[in-house]
């Protein structure tokens, strides 16, 4: 693996936001950037070659313009155009990357339907962490601060915590680690309310799992402010509520925690469908 960030580039405004986020991160960590665009949709139709050639030429111009825009940033930027399936090409490229960054056309709550099909497929196929950048100006919201990370006690969750802590330290922002427990669902004619002892036990179990997951983190980042949150509810809902005021959200992919009924797995996909902030999915 190299110390290279790959950015999937299109002509959408969300893509430019993704490029800018990646460059800021690369500059802080002395990493390089590869701008990668994929021309897809070829089916072998007669006369298709002319269309493909034109698309490749226009895409190369797009990447050249983006690279020139970034020349003053002090970051090494290379470009590449590929022909094929975007998910397959970006997934293969991620094998040689420290991070894959893509943009989304989702513009926040109330701004149209949920998005995320490509982001979800890339998250599942990528060999490195994936950062998805929504198409709205996070910097314009002065109330946004901090990094939120979902915790469930799994190995994937531990990787998410490490990624989130490093990013919070880089940004000089507090880290909020949240673990969510969900009561057992039951038919309407079952118990109308969970016994208090059960609820207290679930919350305490979650609190202990969270403390265990964060053990040693303060020693690694002595200046990092770490906030612990234990919540009852549905994980993606709770995470996105916290993410609505955060600069970055981090979740694990396909986690199966030592503490059952907590979070992650498909939750990362649900978080991606309604991006509340820049969101990183760590494998």
From TrEMBL:
Residues 1-134, 147-282 form the UspA domain. Gene3D superfamilies: HUPs. Keywords: ATP-binding, Nucleotide-binding. Signal peptide: none annotated. It comes from the Bacteria. Belongs to the universal stress protein A family. This is Universal stress protein. It comes from Microbacterium soli.
């Amino acid at each position: 693996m190299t110390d290279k960030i790959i950015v999937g580039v299109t002509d959408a405004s969300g893509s430019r936001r993704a490029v800018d986020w990646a460059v800021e991160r690369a500059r802080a960590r002395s990493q390089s950037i590869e701008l990668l665009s994929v021309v897809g949709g070829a089916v072998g139709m007669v006369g298709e070659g002319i269309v493909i050639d034109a698309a490749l030429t226009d895409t190369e111009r797009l990447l050249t313009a983006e690279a020139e825009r970034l020349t003053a940033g002090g970051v090494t930027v290379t470009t590449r155009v590929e022909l094929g399936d975007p998910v397959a090409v970006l997934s293969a490229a991620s094998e040689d990357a420290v991070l894959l960054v893509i943009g989304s056309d989702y513009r926040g709550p109330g701004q149209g339907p949920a998005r995320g099909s490509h982001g979800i497929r890339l998250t599942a196929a990528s060999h490195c962490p994936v950062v998805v950048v929504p198409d709205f100006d996070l910097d314009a919201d002065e109330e946004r601060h901090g990094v939120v990370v979902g915790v469930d006690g799994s190995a994937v969750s531990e990787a998410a915590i490490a990624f989130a802590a490093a990013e919070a330290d880089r940004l000089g922002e507090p880290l909020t680690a949240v673990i969510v427990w969900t009561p057992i669902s039951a038919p309407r004619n079952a118990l109308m309310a969970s016994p208090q002892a059960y609820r207290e036990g679930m919350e305490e179990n979650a609190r202990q799992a969270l403390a265990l997951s964060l053990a040693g983190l303060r020693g690694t980042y002595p200046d990092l402010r770490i906030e612990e949150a234990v919540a009852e509810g549905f994980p993606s809902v709770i995470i996105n509520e916290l993410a609505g005021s955060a600069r970055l959200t981090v979740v694990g992919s396909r986690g199966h925690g030592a503490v059952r009924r907590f979070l992650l797995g498909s939750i990362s996909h649900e978080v991606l469908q309604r991006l509340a902030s820049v969101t990183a999915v760590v494998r």
